[in-house]
């Protein structure tokens, strides 16, 4: 009773001593406080909005505010009931009606706010809920956010679609090269026997694939031309597309071409000449301005070497750039460092001397105009060997950077390029490489002689090959990269005809590293990586038993045999080829069937007199060091293969095997000359596995399965060295 009386005496709108309570009587009569605040604050006491009308926010409010009054709730409730009973009925009824109207209106507004996406305030009170319909700025913000998201997502989706379209739907420029079939091109009946024709590979149509250039000799159909020339033959050079075999250009020649070399590059602008080069630059024999030569040679330059003429042509069009007649040419051209300062490599060739006394002449030519640099430098080589096969000339750069030329007649001699330059021009060499000397080589120089004797022994030298893997594929190239790869390396020497000595000469001092004596070696050794010691190994083909041919791989570091197998002789002397794969080389060579054929093959026996009458089947085999007990047969033919080379396609990591063969025709006429291209990866897919005896190599633990072999070979990729 005392508590109720004390609350009755409180001022309107003022808080009492109880925790946050307001007197309901004084609050109803007060004009200073708002009715909304009164009802909100008295909600826990009056019990309005209980249950689920206020949602979770109300429950939190109740839990937070009324929780402090739990202790005295019962006591206060008893006093309130007694106090309300004393109030006049009308006032109490009006207050309750006002409260019900207010809360019904608040509940309606709250429901509309929920439907419009409104949210309760942080405290959960109903007075803090916001209606989306009453907030136009919120709608604008949502619209702006949607627009920004659209501007970000639409370009992103478009970019992804473009990437997917380019990656999977639009074919690449070289995509058709993967599907190209093998092709062959008949160049007509050939006159001149089965002499290997000159062959060169170079990209002349700028499609990233090496095209084919070949010399052709045919019977002339022009009677007037034949009678005036004194023979009935026509000579030409043909450029064939590596993609389809179609003729890109054809150039007629006065004489049969003996060698084709490509790779010279003319710079767009001439470089300034060093001191002393102006005299060499003034080339009175050249009637064509230097700028015109550069404009006309806007691409690779190819050299066509005839017996007495040297002609430079534009590799893309076949048009002549210049032509010289230096005499009786005996060798291919050698690409030298720039001797004149015109940014074009210069050339060296071997010719027969005009005095008929000396044995050989070395002649320097300008790579830009073909003009002679000085006069020929003659050498007398009969002191070492009266008659022999011409070796070289070859360019060699030592580890110190000194320049030497290797050449000889049945021997190997070396002469400093600086000495040749001085004797030819009478001038002091300008380039540092021309002035340097290699101490290890100079010790071998004879007194009062400019020659350094490299080879030793009485046997004639048959082959001189740089010990560089894959070099056999581009030995006709004149580009600087090939020359750099073939330089600064050891050298492979093959001496003797009836029996051969295979040896390796050290580059630093020209001393013999090792020597292997074997039966006669019929073709140039093919360097390649068979083991993993980093030193190129050698594939050689030599005589075996009667009508047999032995193919052997020799360790380049020691000379020991790594692999060997005997085959039926294919009656063919064609050098092997090595192609780099991932870390090791794949070796290609032509042969007959292995002496120990697989059990599932039937070997036919014929009478000895009928052997010559039967056509010889020649097969192209691939040997890979990963599976030395098997061979992959890629092709077979009865044609006589005259020469072969490998053309690389770097984008596809593939290679084509190019062959030039003589195909017999009906009657007694000359055979037809056929050029054929074969994709190696396609040939591997259709190749046949030939198993060899376990004695062909040592250390093979498990006999590989067919599935494993096919999987390995079909995943092979090829790359240029």
Automatic annotation (TrEMBL):
It comes from the Eukaryota. One of its GO terms (cellular component) is membrane. InterPro entries: Beta-prop_FAM234A_B, FAM234. Residues 1-112 are annotated as: Disordered. It is a single-pass membrane protein. It is found in: Membrane. Residues 29-39, 72-82 have a biased composition (Acidic residues). The chain crosses the membrane at residues 149-170. Residues 199-269, 295-697 form the FAM234A/B beta-propeller domain. This is FAM234A/B beta-propeller domain-containing protein. The gene is FAM234B.
């Amino acid at each position: 009773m005392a508590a109720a009386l004390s609350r009755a005496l409180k001022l309107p709108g003022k808080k009492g001593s109880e925790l946050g309570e307001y007197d309901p009587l004084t609050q109803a009569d007060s004009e200073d406080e708002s009715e909304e605040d009164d009802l909100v604050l008295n909600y826990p006491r009056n019990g309005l909005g209980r249950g689920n009308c206020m949602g979770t926010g109300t429950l939190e409010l109740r839990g937070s505010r009324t929780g402090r009054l739990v202790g005295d709730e019962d006591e206060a409730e008893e006093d309130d009931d007694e106090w309300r009973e004393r109030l006049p009925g009308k006032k109490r009824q009006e207050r309750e009606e006002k409260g019900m109207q207010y809360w019904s209106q608040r509940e309606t507004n709250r429901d509309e706010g929920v439907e419009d996406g409104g949210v309760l305030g942080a405290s959960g009170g109903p007075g803090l809920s916001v209606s989306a319909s009453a907030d136009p700025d919120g709608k604008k913000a949502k619209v702006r956010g949607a627009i920004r998201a659209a501007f970000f997502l639409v370009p992103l989706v478009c970019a992804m679609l473009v990437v997917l379209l380019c990656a999977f739907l639009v074919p690449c420029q070289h995509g058709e090269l993967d599907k190209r079939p093998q092709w062959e091109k008949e160049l007509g009946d050939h006159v001149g026997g089965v002499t290997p024709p000159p062959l060169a590979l170079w990209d002349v149509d700028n499609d990233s694939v090496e095209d084919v250039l070949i010399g052709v000799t045919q019977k002339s159909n022009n009677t007037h031309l034949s009678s005036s020339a004194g023979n009935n033959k026509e000579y030409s050079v043909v450029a064939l597309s590596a993609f389809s075999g179609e003729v890109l250009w054809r150039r007629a020649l006065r004489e049969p071409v003996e060698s084709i070399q490509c790779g010279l590059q003319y710079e767009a602008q001439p470089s300034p000449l060093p001191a002393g080069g102006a005299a060499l630059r003034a080339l009175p024999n050249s009637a064509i301005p230097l700028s015109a030569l550069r404009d006309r040679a806007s691409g690779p330059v190819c050299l066509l070497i005839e017996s007495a003429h040297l002609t430079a042509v534009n590799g893309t069009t076949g048009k002549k750039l210049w032509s010289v007649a230096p005499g009786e040419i005996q060798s291919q051209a050698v690409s030298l460092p720039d001797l004149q300062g015109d940014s074009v490599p210069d050339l060296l060739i071997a010719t027969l001397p005009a005095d008929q006394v000396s044995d050989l002449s070395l002649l320097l030519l300008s790579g830009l105009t073909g003009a002679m640099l000085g006069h020929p430098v003659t050498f007398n080589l009969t002191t070492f060997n009266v008659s022999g096969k011409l070796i070289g000339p070859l360019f060699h750069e030592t580890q110190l950077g000194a320049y030497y030329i290797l050449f000889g007649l049945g021997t190997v001699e070396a002469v400093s390029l600086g000495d040749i330059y001085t004797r030819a021009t009478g001038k002091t060499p300008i380039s540092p490489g021309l002035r340097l000397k290699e101490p290890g080589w100079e010790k071998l120089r004879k007194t009062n002689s400019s020659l350094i004797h490299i080879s030793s022994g009485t046997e004639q030298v048959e082959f001189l090959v740089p010990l560089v893997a894959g070099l056999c594929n581009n030995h006709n190239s004149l580009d600087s990269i090939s020359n750099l790869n073939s330089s600064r390396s050891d050298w492979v020497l093959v001496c003797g005809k009836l029996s051969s000595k295979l040896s390796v000469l050290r580059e630093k001092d020209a001393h013999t590293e090792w020597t292997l004596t074997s039966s006669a070696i019929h073709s140039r050794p093919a360097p390649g990586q068979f083991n993993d010691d980093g030193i190129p190994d050698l594939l050689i083909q030599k005589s075996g038993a009667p009508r047999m041919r032995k193919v052997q791989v020799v360790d380049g570091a020691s000379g020991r045999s790594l692999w060997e197998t005997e085959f039926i002789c294919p009656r063919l002397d064609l050098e092997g080829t090595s192609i780099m794969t991932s870390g090791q080389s794949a070796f290609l060579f032509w042969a007959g069937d292995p002496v120990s054929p697989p059990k599932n093959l039937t070997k036919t026996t014929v009478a000895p007199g009928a052997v010559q009458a039967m056509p010889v089947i020649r097969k192209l085999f691939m040997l890979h060091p990963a599976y030395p007990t098997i061979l992959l047969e890629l092709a077979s033919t009865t044609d006589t293969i005259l020469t072969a080379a490998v053309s690389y396609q770097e984008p596809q990591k593939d290679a084509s095997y190019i062959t030039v063969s003589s195909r017999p025709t009906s009657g007694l006429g000359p055979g037809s000359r056929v050029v054929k291209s074969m994709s190696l990866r396609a040939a591997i897919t259709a190749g046949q596995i030939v198993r060899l005896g376990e004695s062909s190599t040592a250390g093979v633990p498990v006999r590989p399965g067919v599935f494993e072999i096919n999987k390995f070979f079909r995943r092979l990729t090829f790359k240029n060295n």
